[in-house]
């Protein structure tokens, strides 16, 4: 987002398109996306990233980002119990009252870039001093520079000229990136429902299926009169890997049975959403965490994202700043 903001300041035209995301869906934000109930009677739910942990070092180096998000109310300190949370000395944990997607929307709105959702990018073709970006439906478009931030396996699947431009070392580094996989459920309840647990979230240790459960609206401090609570469930990584190629509709009942074992007496939800995160958190990143990888200088083609740093908010910021330096050097 910072790169796009800088481009806008220099009078450049900047667009944000979307390949298939980590879940296979087409939405801005990747794991920082917020799901909503079919009607407005229930709170929203974050099916991906759950909270933001700022180490003392990142709290200093990324102070301007945290300060901005806190000042506009998009972040607030976590103030409810999370059972099993492995806290580290000096680390501050934050939640997003409006959902994690609010952070993505905030930076996109600040960027001045044109946002195009449901533009499934399928190929990149070098056309002289420009890039032709091909998408699944609709006309191709031409750009002076392209920045790719989708999961690395999807970068490698792009058709066109990208593959032949990768050096042997670059290809090896990209192919070495490893992601965890998991399923997530959001349960939306009616306004009169009560989820009776003493915590806002809990890391589960006695289940081969479920690793994490959160009363998401409580955890985010988003409970409001007239709106029902929301519950989020994450499976463990081994379970996600074992069932990865199954349809999420087939996996959902398995997760629900285990959830009711863990939380007997859970109210009947009015709606359930199941999400398959094929590319969840980065387990093995590009060596030395460079922040970005420049595939070609002219026309500029850069890859970035948490695969080039580490898989949390600060890793994404670090990669964005790294790519910004490349774009400034090229176009400033």
TrEMBL record:
InterPro entries: Amino_oxidase (IPR002937), FAD/NAD-bd_sf (IPR036188), RNLS (IPR040174)
Listed Polar residues bias regions: 32-45
Region (Disordered) residue spans: 1-45
Annotated signal sequence range: none
Residue span, Amine oxidase domain: 96-321
Xref: Gene3D superfamilies: 3.90.660.10, FAD/NAD(P)-binding domain (3.50.50.60)
GO MF terms, alphabetically ordered: oxidoreductase activity, acting on NAD(P)H
Keyword Transmembrane in record: no
Transmembrane segments: none
Flavoprotein keyword on record: yes
Keywords assigned: FAD, Flavoprotein
Biased composition (Basic and acidic residues): 1-12
GO cellular component: extracellular region
Protein name listed in UniProt: Renalase isoform X2
Native species: Pundamilia nyererei
Taxonomy of the source species: Eukaryota, Metazoa, Chordata, Craniata, Vertebrata
